[in-house]
Amino acid sequence: MSDITPDGNRHESTRPRTISDIARLAGVHAGTVSRALADNPLVNAETRARIQALADEHGFRPNQMASRLRTQKTHVVGVVVPLGHERRQHLSDPFFMTILGHLADALTEGGYDIMLSRVIPDAHDWLERIVDSGMLDGVLLIGQSDQFDAIERVAARYRPLVVWGDHVDGQHHCAVGVDNRLGGLLAGRRLIERGCRQLAFFGEIRTLELAHRYDGLIQAAREADIADPVQCDTHLASDVMAAEISDHLDRLSGRIDGIAAASDVIAMRSVRVLADRGIAVPGDVPVVGFDDLPLASQIIPRLTTIRQDVERGAAEMIRALFARMQGAEMPGADAPSVIMTPELVVRDSA
């Protein structure tokens, strides 16, 4: 190691530039330095502390790319939002922002970087391209969208994959989410308790989660021996949502007296559209949401909703992913799906 000084002379530099330089200073092998800087317990605590102190003293930082090539680990987790069913929806959606915050905190605290992707799955092999890129140690999918078969195909061979979504018997992929049928049932029962007899479901049903919410609402109606709820396609894209809700209300004027929304965002927008028409919530039309986002308790009227514990769900996703990454080469190491119990949160809107 040498540097050129301002006088043009070459002098030996004392600053180490490689792991081998640190090893010479410490009087150990380069492999010992590599392990010590990774805080590997195979190196005794005293030696680790001495080597780490030397590195700090000289401002030495190991080459992360070289380390990743040696270990075949990238220390990067992909967080992917597939939008096959809802192509105009953005990551700024309040639900995405809520769960992304919890996932990002847990991943960074666990020593992982994040690669965030919003994917329109036009190609058949969109998920294969992600998991086989060599850039990621694992993948978290936020939502199944209408891509259940693609997820199943990849999960059959790629273990470090965990999905926020619903679970059906026999599926390969690990899903973390709420019992959506039960959530829809609770929403329907609440509206019926309020005296509603003509229910509507505002939400599309091309995704497993939302279809199951609608199924639960139908179950509640049949328990009460009333007509099946009207299903009204309402997209989560903010640029069309209000217009769609207005169209539904025009078409169903006088024919519905209670709304179960597929999400809190749809419920809040419905409350606004109803208010603009002079229709009181809950006096004329009670409204129930789904999610219990932070905004649900802040709007007026405060939103009655079905709570899915997003914070716990994010923690379960991370736990399952880490277990699967650590046991990627071990048969039987797969973490199972986690289906949480939803909770009816009664506030002012229903």
Characterise this structure.
The structure is a single chain. The protein has 350 residues and is α/β, with parallel strands linked by helices. Helices cover 40% and strands 17% of the residues. It is built from 12 helices and 14 strands. The strands form 3 sheets. A 6-stranded parallel β-sheet has the order 4-3-5-6-7-13. The protein is elongated and about 85 Å long. The relative contact order is 0.11.
Supply database-style keywords:
alpha/beta; 6-stranded mixed β-sheet; single chain; 350 residues
In short:
The chain has twelve helices and 14 strands. With 350 residues, it is of the alpha/beta class.
SSE order and pairing:
Layout: E1 2-4, E2 10-12, H1 19-26, H2 30-37, H3 45-57, H4 64-71, E3 76-82, H5 94-109, E4 113-119, H6 126-131, E5 138-142, H7 148-155, E6 161-164, E7 174-178, H8 180-193, E8 199-202, H9 208-223, E9 230-232, H10 238-251, E10 258-261, H11 264-276, E11 287-291, E12 304-307, H12 310-326, E13 338-340, E14 343-345
Parallel strand pairs: 3-4, 3-5, 5-6, 6-7, 7-13, 8-9, 8-10, 10-11, 11-12
Antiparallel strand pairs: 1-2, 12-14
